[in-house]
Amino acid sequence: MRRTVFNEDHEAFRATVRDFIAAEVAPVYDAWEEAGHPPRDFYNKLGELGVFGITVPEEYGGAGEAGFKYQLLISEECARAGVSFGGYGVHVNLVLPYLLKYGDREQKKRWLPDFVSGDMMTAIAMTEPGTGSDLAGVQTTAKRDGDHYILNGAKTFITGGVLADRVLVVARTSPADPENRRAGLSILAVDTRSEGYAVGRKLEKIGLRSSDTAELSFSDVLVPAGDLLGEEGRGFEYLTHNLAEERLGIAASSYASAAAAVDFAKKYVQERTVFGKTVSSFQNTKFVLAECATEVEAAQSLVDRCTEALDAGELTPADAAKAKLFCTEVQARVVDKCLQLHGGYGYILEYPIARLYADARVTRIYGGTSEVLKTIIAKDLGV
After folding, report:
1. Is 271 assigned a catalytic role?
2. Per the residue annotation, which of 8, 246, 271, 329 is the catalytic one?
3. Stated pTM of the model
4. Phi and psi of 164, rounded to 5°?
5. Acyl-CoA oxidase/dehydrogenase middle domain: from which residue to which, for each copy (predicted)?
């Protein structure tokens, strides 16, 4: 089916991104996976490419382009090549919407130019060792003391946490109220050079090995009151506001991964011979690829529709939950079937399908588990 979500400008940028990946990422990607993250200067190259500032207003060094479509395009091109841009997704898809919506003018002038150039990489720290998806259960505290907050606590599963220069930390600025556990949370933009701020273990993951994920701890970290994002006590409200875009971002990357898996499998079965025949000539191969291609088409249509809705300000939390739930499940099924078509070679890491398989598992967990999403969808249905 003809897609209508992209225009000529998008496709021209796609070609630029594709060339950049071929020159700067694909040849060295194995080394990134071994190291657990790209080299720090890679993010400056992304800054020069312009991918960090697409939606940032021109006055802060960006391009001032509204909408999600460029992020969708980048997800597709990374999946197509079997690579990732390390902490790019968290930096642009998670952190930037908070800075744009809740940062005041002074904060934007301080942070956004370096954000766009890649001189300041960011992460967001919500999850704690004992809370998981229960954001209202946050135990990290930030107590106001004059012109500063004193931050204490710990976070885990923080993507981009090793190389981040500034981290949005969700902390409790007033005691928990049993009647309203969501009240009293705030977001502080913490400078990682602050005394008492520490990066703990770099967590070893099954997949997404070129993206650093870390434990963080805060011991009497002094955070200037001017680094409070938005208003004190409204952190939970802010976090839920951006969940729809975050979940669409995961849906987009999941759909793109499934589409790439079909392309990798199609190429492999057309070249591989068994019993004197190409694997693609067997009826089972044809049927499996047909099933996968159909599921990918459905996922793409849902992502495209949700992208248009997001850009129009109409994407609901329930619709975003449906997109993430469906696309991550499609990803799991399609990547698994496409790996099976590779036979034993599908389990060998030099083949991109193996990397896609390992990377796929977490998409049904982060950004809201599938079980949490089903609860949101059911509530929207009135049941």
Report:
1. no
2. 246
3. 0.92
4. -65, 140
5. 123-221
